[in-house]
Amino acid sequence: MPVPTAPYIGRFAPSPSGPLHMGSLVAAMASYLDAKVHRGTWLLRIEDLDYDRNVKGADAGILASLQRCGMQWDGEATWQSRRLPLYQAALKQLQDDGFVYACGCSRKEIQDSNLQAGAPKNGAAVYPGTCRHGLAPGKAARALRLRVPQGADAVYAFADRWAGPQRQDLANDVGDFIVLRGDGYWAYQLAVVVDDGAQGITQVVRGADLLDSTPRQLYLQDVLGLPHPGFLHVPVVTNDSGEKLSKQTGALAFDTGTQATELLTSALLPAARFLGLDVRAENVEDFWRQAVPAWAQRLSQLPIHA
């Protein structure tokens, strides 16, 4: 959908599982520039709920890297780990409204059910609804799942400003999905929806690896009574093997020990080129002066623009 006329509030929400790398810099740059072009607010949220993957000091390192790159967020940065009562309140609302049930299925059991139903061996696992009507005798709860609608109500469509029209059938493509994991950790889908609602986010700009998650978040926003933001998903940076560049695939920090000029040539300019921006700056300050109108020009070339 086009950017609305209401005040623009965007955000960058990295996970502190390692330093800021080129892939996350691209997402940060796109969200920052989109907020600047629309004269909006740019918030910073550290998504640190996956405690097993958090790296000590990575959050402070990410904040420092953004500032060295010339990106300053509005207001104070927030941490998901400090917002747990919000997620608990949302879960209670879902439980009270009958949307949540306990699930005792393991990943292997779900995969086996999919294979028996004729799904491709390497296809996405769709939850078959095994525990929808209660746990089988002897089964213990492993997670809490959210019921998705069936039939026409399960189809969620939205217009992504970069990728164009999108459509997903939650019942056939996803199935009932987890909102509280078996290890007690809050699921990404629930936490991000609650946070975006609490912070009044009107536009979500992030990597295309999260495009598939968007219909689940739209549905969660509906059942929690939260507004839908607009979406823009930029392409993800990949490594030589074609895998998404991430900490798990060996992505390295781009600014360790670099000077400002090196930061410009080794990180900011390559990230801008990846986004299709024509910027030819010689210092960081000039980079942003050129990058903002370059982003506005890039937006005008997208399938759905404002």
TrEMBL record:
Binding site for L-glutamate: R11, F12, A13, P14, S15, E47, Y188, R206
EC numbers for this chain: 6.1.1.-
Residue interval(s) of motif 'HIGH' region: 14-24
Assigned keywords, A-Z: Aminoacyl-tRNA synthetase, ATP-binding, Ligase, Metal-binding, Nucleotide-binding, Protein biosynthesis, Zinc
Motif residue range(s): 'KMSKS' region: 244-248
Cofactor binding notes: Binds 1 zinc ion per subunit.
Keyword Repeat: no
NCBIfam families given in the database record: PRK05710.1-2 (NF004313), PRK05710.1-3 (NF004314), queuosine_YadB (TIGR03838)
Protein name stated in the entry: Glutamyl-Q tRNA(Asp) synthetase
Record organism: Janthinobacterium rivuli
